[in-house]
Amino acid sequence: MPRFSIVVPVYKVPAYLGECLDSVLGQDFGDFEVIGVDDCSPDVCGEILDQYAANDARVRAVHLPENVGLGNARNAGLAHAGGDYILFLDSDDLLLPGSLSAMAERLDAADSPDILVYDYARSYWDGRLVRNSLARHLHEDGPASFSLADRPELLNLLQVAWNKAYRREFVEAAGLLFPAGYYEDAPWTYCAMAAAESLAVLDRVCVHYRQRREGGNILSTVSRKHFDAFDQYDRVFAYLDSRPELDRWRGPLFRKMIDHYLTILERPGRLPEEAKAEFFHRAAHDYRRRIPAGFERPAGRDGYKFAMLERDAYALMTGSATAVRTRQVVKTKARQAVKGSKKRAMGLFYRSQQHTDLDENLALFSAYWSRSVSCNPAAIDAELARRAPHIRRVWAVRPDLMDSVPRGVRAVPLGSRDFWTVAARAKYLVNNVNFSDRLVKRPGQIHLQTHHGTPLKKMGLDQREYPISTSMNFDDLLRRCDRWDYSLSSNAHSTRVWERVYPSRYETLETGYPRNDALVNASAADVLAARVELGLSEDTTALLYMPTHRDYEKSFRPRLDLARIASELGPDTVLLVRGHYFYKPSPQVEELRATGRIIDVSAHPRVESLYLAADALVTDYSSAMFDYALLDRPIVVFADDWEIYSTVRGVYFDLLSEAPGAVARSQDELLDVLAGGAWRGAEADRRRAAFRRRFCDFDDGRAAERVVRKVFLGDDREIPVTPLADRPHVPSPAELAGAVRVPSRTENRVPVYVPERERADEPAYVPERLVTAEAGYAAEPDPVAETAYAPEHELTAEPALAEEPAYAPQPELVAETAYAEEPELAAESWFAPEPAFTAEPLPAPEPVPAAEFAYAELREEERAEEEPDEGPDDEPDARDAHIDDAADESAPEISVPAWARAEPFAPSAPLDADSFFGPPPTRAPQERAVAAPVSEALAAYSELFPQSGHGMSIPRQPVSADRAGHDVAQDRADDRPAARGLPLPPLSGADEPVTAPEPPSAETA
Fold first, then answer.
1. What is the 3-state secondary structure (H, E, C) of 23-41?
2. Coil, strand or helix: which one is 953?
């Protein structure tokens, strides 16, 4: 008897049938049978079935003498099914790789429940993949097996038969069969769910539900056949009548019935206009005769519709609907007019700042869409403070995250007037992703693109070959790349990829990644301090588990059974678990942390400390492996879904054959690797050495120095890269402890619990590494209102963290496939509140050159109805996404805790109002037109634009007469300190003192 019987009804799908059957026969779980039912299809579908049956004994072809419809075709397949569980798969849909294995594993864990519910994604003809918007109901927290009463929200899911596996004995005992008709899935699904004594869920996309361009869904046709819904719900309630023990479900199923009726009535493309009144009256009749005792109408607009049905008031309902639509249109247009005015005002302000002088000693920094002070930009900032303190450093930070800015960092709220002032005047623009499209690079400004990872997956223009992995606009991507002056690279592999996938005229700097200096230069004291901070003892083996983002998972759910891993490896092994920063905190991880089995370090602000503290890294496809390899410590690759990941996203090399250490394809293999010592064996060492030679080219501990000298000080002298063999060795925890510790399997032993540290009020800065993720699913249109058991609100998706794609997290979505997810952002909340406006926070328009500004205003008005309002600091989306989603999975959560106090962030030069935007200190004095003192300008500015900014309020500066109309497009070298005679720091060593330039004379100031 096979484990699964998969019933595939077939009718007029010759173009899709072969792909459907291949998706089943290619599963890595082979204990199944396929029952293909030819519903008298008038084409070659029957022959295709026969051919597959002849080539594979697991396929059985059943030919019906006449067309009987989908429901009866499924019944014919049921009659031939002999498996433990029955699945239904439409003949134009796909079963994703690894799905049967995952189902079998989940069924075993749940002790053979009556029904297993799994997830799906809509697969559109243009390559888009959109996950079920109610996927949050499929979380696997809590008991593996439960009753519908424990989780009634499962009734909200789409009422279809093909997203569930049914125990065959349960189906036979419950007397379940499909009726004929349009809506045959409704009675099957509701009756099965109500009758089941035990349920289980699988939080995994197993089916791609094809959405054809030419249609093909009978529910989308205008016809009186939609009246079939009344007959189907008669069957549902007749089933309840025959089983008194199911009376408790009359209320919920009544609600589902009315929701379904209203959807058919209101959804365009269903009922002919002349039939709507008749349908309404029949629905009202069903309402009055089936309303259960004690039923309470829902609140709000839905409740109003229920009341109209109860009164059979069709004219009143249609009239009120028209009035509501009219009111909504008026409110929307008024709101858009206010927002448009705010945008135009901010655009004019930004344009005015673009006509002022560039400040040669001002740098604007940002990282990860202004979410944190971290990664390569933060490491450059710290080095710049030491080597060129005359350059003032300002960070752009989201308004809602200003409280998390480390001490000593001067920051401006993203989208505020201060931000646009700095963006317009700063000589240097530094980011590890792209700035907003609304930021216009002025002649003379220098844009440094640092990137934030080494690419394993396909990036940039290479993603054109993998359309389901991105919704990127490649023309917009190239325009962003054209703003770059410099692009950093940490190895030759990255250089080749960046220059090919981001083709433009920038200069590649093969300096290494500045953020990795902290790893290469770490000492034994740093390693010990990192372990003490986490509460790790000398005899503890710490395994850092850092999985990458999965686009089909809206929250972090470890792919490993962490409790089992911790238990089998024994009390001397501690798991440090770091979820991707696109994910919200995991209840599962929190539960395990509370029991002392793991330490959840997802919110730890310094991933470098975690690297130093860990004995080994366990990851999948995260680019954390490229950074961790610098420490020359063991790395274990857990690649349970490599085929899916590499096929959907595309990769640059075969990780399985070129891994930096041992490879495990299942949890059992991973336990064998960790407990048997293969993680630190000779073969793992050989693989890691080859990986290091290939990917650790330039990171020798002086990357930040190279960048600062070249970009900010104009020093073209080359600092030779220290060969890999000559770099200092950072001792491992085992070496410091004086012995190599090997985790061993034990039984019934609990690992040491390490309590969470107290959080400090003000976290101190330490350079941190963050990553991008493949993006998440695009938000699905309401599945169909038939499924609304209770008012549901879709989750706001995390933005996708791919370089450009909104694929969107992320977080993050790859393991089963990558899905695009459009972030639904309330753009107004990203801007600092403006006292002048009471309606909403201030969004800013897309800044454009003066000649294009009028057109930009018109374009914004035209787009107002099509997309949410966003300011100059909008999150990455299909138009304005970031670039490097190949980076490590190490960014902090939005609220950054202080796990330990450190020295404050090195401060910039003083930022007093009278000197902030004064002329550069080394510039020759110029004759300027008589203007009011800067302090008076500041007072006037504060009166016009009062702000409570984080670090400063920036005065406007009048343009001098000699600069009016001046062409600032000069050779870049002329604007560097070296070209103006500033002495350069010596090259001999990083610890030599740096002499700051002489302050400007009083006359110059």
1. HHHCCCCCCEEEEEEECCC
2. coil
Please check whether residue 750 is in contact with residue 786, taking contact to mean a CB–CB distance below 8 angstroms: no
CA atoms of 975 and 980, how far apart (whole Å): 8
Place of tokens 């007093």: 912
Single pTM value for the model: 0.52
Main-chain phi, psi angles of 488, to 5 degrees: -85, 150
Residue 455 pLDDT greater than 90, yes or no = yes
Identity of the amino acid at 124: Y
Helices of type H across 267-313: 276-290, 300-311
**Calpha distance 376→834 (Å, rounded):** 32
The encoded tokens of residue 537 equal 């003892």
Cβ count within 10 A of residue 943: 8
Element (H, E) at 16: helix 14-25
* Whole-number Å distance between alpha carbons of 997 and 1003: 17
CA distance 652 to 461: 13
**Pair 881, 906: CB distance under 8 Å:** no
Is the model's pLDDT at 585 over the cut of 70? no
Say how far apart CA 224 and CA 238 lie, in whole Å: 24
3-state secondary structure of 403: helix
Query: What's the CA gap between 140 and 587, in Å, rounded?
Result: 10
Average pLDDT, the chain: 76
Query: Do the strands 164-167 and 85-88 form a parallel or antiparallel pair, or are they unpaired?
Result: antiparallel
Give percent of the chain with pLDDT exceeding 70.
69
Produce one character per residue of 75-86: b if its CB has 16 or more CB atoms within 10 Å, e if not.
bbbbeebebbbb
No. of helices (H) and no. of strands (E), the chain = 28, 22
Q: Can you spell out the DSSP letters for 752-801?
A: PP-PPPPPPSSPPP-----------PPPPP---GGG-SS---PPPPPPP-
Cβ-contact 130, 122 below 8 angstroms: yes
What pLDDT was estimated at residue 143?
Answer: 93
Give the tens place of pLDDT for each residue, 263-278. 998 888 889 989 999 9
- Residue 254 falls in which region: left (phi positive, over 0), alpha (psi -120 to 50) or beta: alpha
Structure-token match 């409280």, residue found: 403
Handedness of CA 794, 799, 800, 801 (dihedral sign): negative
- Positive or negative torsion for Cα 727, 625, 615, 523: positive
Q: Which residues, at least 6 apart from 945, have a Cβ–Cβ distance to it below 8 Å?
A: 417
Spatial contact of 581 and 367, defined as CB atoms under 8 Å apart: no
Question: Rounded distance, CA 700 to CA 220, Å?
Answer: 61
Q: Which residues of 147-166 are buried (b: 16+ CB within 10 A; e: fewer)?
A: ebeebeebbbbbbbbbbbbb
CB 813 within 8 A of CB 775: yes
Sign of CA dihedral 248, 249, 252, 258: negative
Q: Amino acid letter at 573?
A: T
Strand, coil or helix: 962: helix
